[in-house]
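Loading example: each entry is read as two labelled lines plus one structure line.
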Amino acid sequence: MNKTQIAAASVITAILFGLPFGVKSQYFMTVAIFIFIYSILSLGLRAMMKVGEVSFAHAAFMGIGAYISALLTMKLQLSFWVAWGLASLATGVFALFLGSLAVRTKGVHFFIVTLAMGETIRLIAMNWNARLLGGPNGIYGIPPPPPIDVGFLTMRFDSRMGMYMIALVALLIVVAIMWRVDKSRIGRIWDVIGQDEKLAAVIGINVYRHKLASFILSSSVAGLGGVLFAHTMTYISPYDFSFFVAVQLLMYVIFGGAEMLAGPMVGAATLVVLAEFLRKAGHYELIFYGLILIIVLRFIPEGVVGYLSKKRFMFARSEER
Amino acid sequence: MIIINGLVLSLTYFLVASGLTIVFSIMGVINFAHGAIIMLGGMAAYYSFTLLSVNFYLSLIIAMAVTALFSWLLNGLIFNYFKNFPLSACIAAVGIAMIIQQGALLGLGGEDKVFVNALPREVANVFGVPVAKDRLIVVLLSLAIMGGLLIFLNFTKAGLITRATAEEPVASQLCGVNTRRVSDLSMILGGALAGAAGALLGALYTVSPYWGESLILKAFIVIILGGLGSVLGAIVGSFALGFMESIGITLSGYVTFVLAFVLIVILLLIRPQGLVGHE
């Protein structure tokens, strides 16, 4: 990261932290919270796309995190903070088991296997032990995070404002982790696998293990985001984690571009806001999403952020001459 | 009774999965829009049966023609651009599915389209077993389609070219095969099969805009079970799932789904290429 990027990132972060004090609208806050949550989820999905695979089970892992956290806080009366960590970890463990099977396949096969996985998990949530999981009705009344006492001041999180702050901090943490991964040796290895799996295997990279690692990271981040989703909505059902949600997350990543960290976040922010406008216009959301998906894939396959940075890069190069 | 139910279910899955698998074998694309195209076929059959008031068999043919034409256009307009990017094509197909589904919801209404009266419903006796006539007709027609498909693929020149392209796209291109035309052909074939599936299943159940989604998920299971891209695999997979479900129906709907999934996982571990597929 160069100085301009660091400056831009800190300015944006500062603005995001300041915004809720300026804009008091509940509606704005809710949209912003969902942008943060979807950014977290799409960043997770991007980790998997780095190794060149697209997982459709992502929404289901988000659901696993959401359900586990809801159950831990409601049935076992655990604190939200503990439940959050446990749920993300548990999602990672699920991902370890399911991933060790799914990662054996690749490309289109991986598509369908993860899709079948996601759908099976959703069906289990819908049908198995309705007293515990609530069946198709899901779980009601998930508590908001409890207040934190730091001696002189108490931070409360039962308002939109509190949730906004939590989601923002969580997003920053996820961005930091993903940035660290990107810059590390492992991140480079994942890039190699994504570009040419056979080459990676030839130069001595254990493709299976690295893909599994990226699957686990990707899914635990999905679980982490799912917990936030559950405690923001206070109500979850199997329908919140359907195939369509997985497609939606994929769309955010593709729209923004998977190349850079900013891509999924820009994608989520743009499309969530656009969808909010469209919701008022009527039932054109899906048609719009479909069109966007096809147009972006067809004309700017590197995504909006990827396209813009390439443009700037070319521009800078031409100036140098 | 279990056998008849199993047969009906198996053929249902076969109708849905066969088009999917043919398109995959040629283009390497999982056509996520296949379910939506089946729904379009059902709609076409419904409207030609009710509005044009032609008989069921003619509306079946109309439905097949409509979806074949639609798939051909889809290939020319969209899939052709993603020729070398199968993953992008799959995702684009998801987009197409969303557009078709929502378009049908807005244009044709969300209510269930019922044309069960298209086929006679009285009970016939087949070898002493009572079977509803509509199911019998659907079974016979699907068997005919299945037979026709196998004959086409195995005993005609176009079928030979199709199989060759599926096997070795580059080599067949070197032998003078126009792969663009083969991909058109496979989409038309897949579309026609989708239309047939829509019309036949629509006559047994009902058609609604969201219909395709529920159909296609099971079809995915069928094609992984049987091995991606093999028509024979689709037949084996659909019979495996169909009979498993008709036996397990006393359990409950989702248990068989989970069971099928477990089966897939085991299969992936020991035979990643599917039951009858090959590398």
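The first strand of chain A starts at residue 148 and ends at 150.
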